[in-house]
Amino acid sequence: MVSRYDRVETQYLTSGDFAAQKQLHTDYARQTQLLVEDVLRLGKVTDEDIWARFYGYYRDSTLQQLLCDVEERFSDLHDIEEQLTEAFHELKKLMPETESPEVYAFVGSLNESILIHEQMLGISLDKYMGTDYPLYGTYGYSSRQRVTMTRQFIVPDCLIFYIVSRYPPTPQQLSDAALRKDHIGRVRHIVNKALKKQFFKGEEVDRASRYMLRHPDVSADELMQLPQIN
Asked: Which site in 125, 153, 185, 204 is 20 to 30 Å from 192, CA atoms measured?
C-alpha cells in the first residue's frame, strides 16, 4: 500500500486547512520532517515559524499548479501498489534480506524522485508527470531527462534506490567513471530480474547479465559486493 501523504500535504498547502496541518504533524510526523528538512531544506520542524515557511514556500503559483496537477494525474495508485508488491516479492527471492519498506507518496517541488530513509521509501510524484508535462520544460529538464520522468519509471526507480541504499557506491566507484557505471549496471541487472523484463538496457547491464550466466551460483548480494566483474 502506498500511503497518500501527498493528499494531506496538498490539502494543507493549497488551503491552509488546520486539520490537515495537524495530521501532517501527528500522523505523518517523520514524512513531514524529511520533506521540510531534507528535501526542501527550510529549517528544522521544531523551528517556531516552520509551518509558516512551509506553507509560504508553496504559495508560488507554479507550485500551486503543480500540487493540483499531481492530485489529478495520480488520483489512483493501485497499479503502482500492485507492481511494487510483485517487484519487492521477486527482489526478496534474489536478495533474501530484503524488507518491504513503508511506502508513501509526496510532492517535493521537483527536488527529489525517490527518498529512502531507514525503512521508509518516499515517491515524489511530481517527478513522474510524463515527458510532455509543461513545467519540466519551464524548469529546464532536457528531453533525455524527461524520458525517465514517467509513471512507468516509478517502480524501477524505487528498486534502484532501495538496492543502492543497501549497496552504495564505494569511494573508488564514485571517483572512477567506469567503476561507477559498472556499479549501476549491476543494480539495473538485478532490477530487471525483479521486474521479470529487460526494462534497463546498456553495455553495463549486459556485462552483469553475462557474468551471472557464467556464474549461476553467485547470488545478487554477492554480485553487488564483487570488487569488479569482467
From this structure: 125
Residue 174 clears pLDDT 90, i.e. is over it: no
Candidates 134, 164, 133; CA nearest to 150 is 133
Cell numbers given for 53: 515557511
d(CA 206, CA 200): 10
Q: Please report the sign of the dihedral spanned by the C-alpha atoms of residue 210, residue 213, residue 217, residue 221.
A: positive
End-to-end CA distance of the chain: 39
Mode of pairing for the β-strands spanning 2-3 and 102-106: parallel
Alpha-carbon span 32 to 39, nearest angstrom: 10
Contact 129, 148 (CB under 8 A): no
The 10s digit of each residue's pLDDT in 15-31 is 999 999 999 999 999 99
On the question of pLDDT at 230 being above 80, the answer is no
Neighbouring residues of 168: CB distance < 8 A, sequence distance ≥ 6? none
Phi, psi angle pair for 45, to nearest 5°:
-65, -15
pTM of this prediction exceeds 0.90: yes
Q: Where are the domains of the chain?
A: 2-72, 78-165, 167-225
- The values of phi and psi at residue 102, to 5°, are -80, 115
**Summary mean pLDDT of the chain:** 94
